[in-house]
Amino acid sequence: MLAILAFVVFGFLLIHWSKKLSKSNQYKIGNIFGFSLSVAVIVWTIIKIYFNGFNIQQDLPFHLCNFTALLIPIFTLTRKKIYYEILLFWILAGTTQAILTPDLKNGFPHFNFLKYWFVHAGLIVFVFYATHIYKMRPTLRSVFKSFFALQGYFILMLIVNKLTNANYFYISKKPKGPTLLDFLGEWPYYILIVELFLIPYFLLIYLPFYLTRNKK
To answer: What are the domain boundaries of the chain?
Structure first.
């Protein structure tokens, strides 16, 4: 709860301060923030490999939040709306669940704890930064763009898991810790149920943007 509160305060102060800056400085801050999320995942992976040796089933940054963090710099450098449309729903849908039901074995101040909260909460702060500072907003089409992009990622993870006997994206089995997936049945039924709920869930995320859209 303290970690969540800390990032709520950090996000509010960052966005409030950045609104007073020039466009070029806003873009610089976005780049620094985006790259820091990506670097945190890379450094965390290197440290794990250094201390524990490389384990292909655990050490590839292919879980959705880690994968998203690696994509963020591409968005910050290009600021293309298609990346915003895809990442917005991935982050607000998937990363929010990771924050509410964290898959963590270590507490503060362990590096795993710090990395987990910096990346997951940082992704949510960043997507609000992009919304308020880059002045980007999703449309109804964005829901389906993000959904179909996620299907491509799902297929990629099926192939990766088949080749490595891993559980990236938790599509081979559910996480060990308690999550909302526990209410959706065993494998593979929870995957099918999540697929059915994805578009309604994305639409629910889009609803506040729709209700607050600018009107002529």
So the answer is: 2-211
**Residue 203: other Cβ atoms inside 10 A:** 15
Q: Phi and psi dihedrals of 58, rounded to 5?
A: -130, -25
State the Cα–Cα distance between residues 170 and 157, nearest whole angstrom. 9
Q: Which two tokens stand for residue 148?
A: 């179909």
Is the model's pLDDT at 136 over the cut of 60? yes
pLDDT in tens, 87-100: 999 999 988 888 87
pLDDT at 215 over 80: no
- pTM for the complete prediction? 0.87
What does the longest C-alpha to C-alpha distance in the chain come to?
59
At residue 73, the pLDDT reads 95
Contact 198, 146 (CB under 8 A): no
List the structure tokens of 98.
């990771």
* Pairwise CA distance, residues 74 & 60, whole Å: 19
Q: Is the backbone peptide bond immediately before 188 cis, with ω within 30 degrees of 0?
A: yes
Each residue's pLDDT tens digit, 31-84: 999 999 999 999 988 988 888 888 888 888 888 889 999 999 999 999 999 999
Going by the DSSP 8-state scheme, the letter that residue 93 receives in this structure is I
Residue keyed to tokens 């620094």: 32
Helices (H) and strands (E) in the chain, counts: 8, 0
Q: Which residues contact 102 (CB under 8 A, 6 or more apart)?
A: 116, 120, 177
| Axis-axis angle for helices 23-52, 64-78 (nearest 10) | 150
